[in-house]
Amino acid sequence: MCLAIPIRVEELLPDEMVRVMLSGVSKVISIALLEDVRPGDYLLVHVGYALARLDPDEAARTLAMMHDAGVPSML
User: Fold this and answer.
1) Full-model pTM
2) What tens digit of pLDDT does each residue of 17-62 get?
3) Residue 51 region by backbone torsions, left for phi larger than 0, else alpha for psi between -120 and 50, else beta
4) Terminal Cα-to-Cα distance of the chain (whole angstroms)
5) In the chain, at which residue ranges do the beta strands (DSSP E only) sit?
6) Distance CA 17, CA 50 (A)
7) With 0-12 CB in 10 A as exposed, 13-18 as middle and 19+ as buried, what is 66?
8) Burial of 5 (0-12, 13-18, 19+ CB in 10 A)
9) Residue of 43, 46, 60 whose CA lies nearest to 8
10) 2 pLDDT band (50/70/90 cuts)?
11) What is residue 15's predicted lDDT score, i.e. its pLDDT?
């Protein structure tokens, strides 16, 4: 089973990469599969690749459900 996590884009980087942050951890991920990604966008991320863009409300609901289910430090 795979888990993709909603995550917010903090900074655009060269070569179709962005910097994201979740629970105080900064990561660089690929946005090669998406177009027109901007800082502030929420992306669905799995193993270092952005798979889809999410509505901010949907991202917040998903992160809250993950937190409620016991997934640590997702908010």
Assistant:
1) 0.82
2) 999 987 788 999 999 999 999 999 999 998 899 999 999 999 889 8
3) alpha
4) 22
5) 5-13, 17-22, 25-30, 42-46, 49-54
6) 10
7) middle
8) middle
9) 43
10) low
11) 97
E strand or H helix at 64, and its extent? helix 56-68
Could you tell me if 17 and 30 are in contact, meaning their C-beta atoms sit under 8 angstroms apart?
A: yes
**In which band, very low, low, confident or very high, does the pLDDT at 74 lie, cut at 50, 70 and 90?**
low
DSSP 43: E
Quick one: pLDDT band at residue 73, thresholds 50, 70, 90? low
CB 21 within 8 A of CB 39: no
> Tokens for 64?
């809250």
